[in-house]
Amino acid sequence: xxxxxxxxxxxxxxxxxxxxxxxxxxxxxxxxxxxxxxxxxxxxxxxxxxxxxxxxxxxxxxxxxxxxxxxxxxxxxxxxxxxxxxxxxxxxxxxxxxxxxxxxxxxxxxxxxxxxxxxxxxxxxxxxxxxxxxxxxxxxxxxxxxxxxxxxxxxxxxxxxxxxxxxxxxxxxxxxxxxxxxxxxxxxxxxxxxxxxxxxxxxxxxxxxxxxxxxxxxxxxxxxxxxxxxxxxxxxxxxxxxxxxxxxxxxxxxxxxxxxxxxxxxxxxxxxxxxxxxxxxxxxxxxxxxxxxxxxxxxxxxxxxxxxxxxxxxxxxxxxxxxxxxxxxxxxxxxxxxxxxxxxxxxxxxxxxxxxxxxxxxxxxxxxxxxxxxxxxxxxxxxxxxxxxxxxxxxxxxxxxxxxxxxxxxxxxxxxxxxxxxxxxxxxxxxxxxxxxx
Amino acid sequence: xxxxxxxxxxxxxxxxxxxxxxxxxxxxxxxxxxxxxxxxxxxxxxxxxxxxxxxxxxxxxxxxxxxxxxxxxxxxxxxxxxxxxxxxxxxxxxxxxxxxxxxxxxxxxxxxxxxxxxxxxxxxxxxxxxxxxxxxxxxxxxxxxxxxxxxxxxxxxxxxxxxxxxxxxxxxxxxxxxxxxxxxxxxxxxxxxxxxxxxxxxxxxxxxxxxxxxxxxxxxxxxxxxxxxxxxxxxxxxxxxxxxxxxxxxxxxxxxxxxxxxxxxxxxxxxxxxxxxxxxxx
Lengths: 438, 282
What we know:
The complex is a heterodimer. By secondary structure, chain A is of the alpha/beta class. Chain A has two domains: about 35-145 and about 315-350, D-Maltodextrin-Binding Protein, domain 2; about 155-310 and about 385-435, 3-Layer(aba) Sandwich (D-Maltodextrin-Binding Protein, domain 2), CATH 3.40.190.10. Chain A contains 19 helices and eleven strands. In chain A, strands 2-1-3-9-4-10 form a six-stranded mixed beta sheet, with helices on both faces. In chain A, strands 6-5-7 form a three-stranded antiparallel beta sheet. The longest helix of chain A has 22 residues, at about 415-435. Mean pLDDT of chain A is about 90; it is low at about 15-30. Chain B is mostly helical. Chain B has two domains: about 5-60, no CATH class; about 75-270, Orthogonal Bundle (MetI-like fold), CATH 1.10.3720. Chain B is built from twelve helices and no strands. The longest helix of chain B is centred in the first third of the chain and has 35 residues, at about 5-40. The radius of gyration of chain B is 24 Å and the shape is flat. The chains are: A alpha/beta, B mainly alpha.
C-alpha cells in the first residue's frame, strides 16, 4: 500500500514537471530580438488569420522585434485586469473599446502623447476621434492613452425595397421621414413591422444617441453642468419612439437583445433597425448581398438641419506600464494604425477608420455602400458629434436602470417624462460626484 | 361505460406519466434538433422566416469551417486533456475523502466539512486576481496542468461530499464483516465499497467531467496561448462583437456535445446496476 502510494506520488510530480512551463515575458537577450506580447479582443478565425499576416509583415520589416499574439474571442476585462494586477499584462492591448479610464487610473498603461506628437501621421487622425480618447482620462490632463483605429458609428439599417414601396425610393432623410416610414411599412397581419427596437441589454445607450440626434443638443451637460437629457425635445423623441412599440414593432422587442434585433431585420420581420456597421456581415449573408434590399445610413437630419452622431469610443492599442520596450511597442502600433493594416482591421471589425487617408482613398469603403455612407458622414464638416461624457463613473449602472424604465414606458406603466426626469437626476448625481472628486 | 381496473390503470399511466414525459422529452430534444439542423444550413437559410427543420440546401461547410479555420480539433484535444486529467484525480480523491468523512471520526471533522461547503459558496470570479497571482508564483499561468489543478481544487470538495453521502448509505457493519474476513482498509474500499457505490461513483465522475468540460472563466483568464484554449473558449471565436455565425456555432456545439453524450450513454448503464444484498452474515 505504502509502496503504491509512493509510486503514485512520484509519478504525479514527474508528470507535473513535464507539463510545467513558465510564461514567456517580454525580453531581449544581449544580441537577440525584442519580444513583445500583444493581446487583441473580439477576434474570430478571420481576424486571427489577419493578425498573423500583419505580424509576419511587421517582423519581416523589423527582424529585431518579435510579436507574440494572443487572440481573445471576446471582451477580456476580467482577464486583463487580473493579468495587470499580477504584473503580467500584455505589452500591447488592442480592444474595440478599451476600458482606458480604469487602466489609466490604476496606472497600468502609459500615456502616448510624447509618441503621438512626434508621429508624422498624427494630422491624418480625426480630431473628434482623439478627443473621444482624451475624454477618457479621468485625471483631467486630457492625455492620449491609445491611438484610435476605427469607430462604430450608430447606423440605421433599412429595407430599401420596403422604403421604395412606401414612397421613400431615396431612403429617409429626416426624423419625420423615419417615423412616417415606420408606420407605413408596418403590416401586422403579415408580421411585418416598420421598426424593431432594441429593448433589452444595451438599449439605454442607443436611446441616448437617438434622442440627441433628434433634438440636436450637442452635449449631455450644458455649460453650467446641468444635465440636458430631460430636455423637452428629448422627451418628445422618447414619447414618439417608444410609442411605436406594439404599433409598429413586434411585442417581443420589449426585451430584445442585439442578436435578436439583427435577426429581426435579417429574417424580414423589421423594416428598420438602429444598430452599427458591425452587423453588416450578417445582413450580407441574410440577403445574399442583394443591395437593392438593404442599406445603411447615419442619423437622420433633425429640426436644426444637421445630423448629430455620437463618436462611439474608438478601438485602439495601448501600451502597458510594465512594457520594457515601449519604443518598439509604439513602432508596432503605428504599423498597425496605418495603411492596409488599419483598413483590414476596420473592415474585419465592422468599424470605420478615423484617419482621413483611409476615409478618402480606401477602395473597400467606397465599394460598400453602408461604409461609404458612414465615411461620408464622418468626413462631412456639417456632421456634428454629441459629447456624451463616457468617463463619468456610475453611468453604466444608470443605463441598466433606464433600460428597465424604458420597458415600463413601452408597456404603459410609466410616462416618458417620468423616466427622463429620473434619468437626468441620476446622471446629474454622477456628474456632480465626478466633478467634486476630480 | 365500465372500464376495467387494468384499462383505467393504463389510461392513468398514459395521462400522468407518459404524456408529461413526452412533453419534457420534446422540451429537451427540440432545441438540440434545431441546433443540429442549423449546423447543416448556410447563408440566408440560417435566419429564414420559412420554418423548416430540414436545411435547404444541407451542407457540411460549417463543420469543415470550424475544423479547419477555427481549429476546433486543437481545442477539443485541450478540453480532453484537462477534463480527463482532472476527473481522474477527482474520482480517486473524492472516493477516499468520502470514505474518510463517512467512516472516521476525528477532531476537526465538522470544521473540515464546513470548509468544504464554504468553498462552494464563493464564486470563482470573486477570486480571479488572487488565483492569477497564485498561479503566477507557481509558474502555472498559461499551462494546462495549472488548469487541471484548478479543476481539481474546485471539483473535489463538492464531489467528496457527494461520495460521503453515497458511502454513508452502506452500513458500517459491511466494513466490519469484510474486516473479519481479513480485508485491510484498501481492500475494503476496493472490493466492497467501490462496487457497491458504483452508481454514485459514476454520477460523481459524470458530474465532474461535465463541469470541467464546460468550464470557461478559469481557462480564459489563465491561458494566454490560443493553442491551449479549451473547447468552451474556442467556440467563442464564432461569436463576434456585433455578429454571430450561428451555423458554424451550431456545428461547433454539436461537436462539443459528443463526449458528454457518449459519457452519459455509458454512465446510464452503470446507474441502473443494483447493490448486493446479504453481505452481512449472522
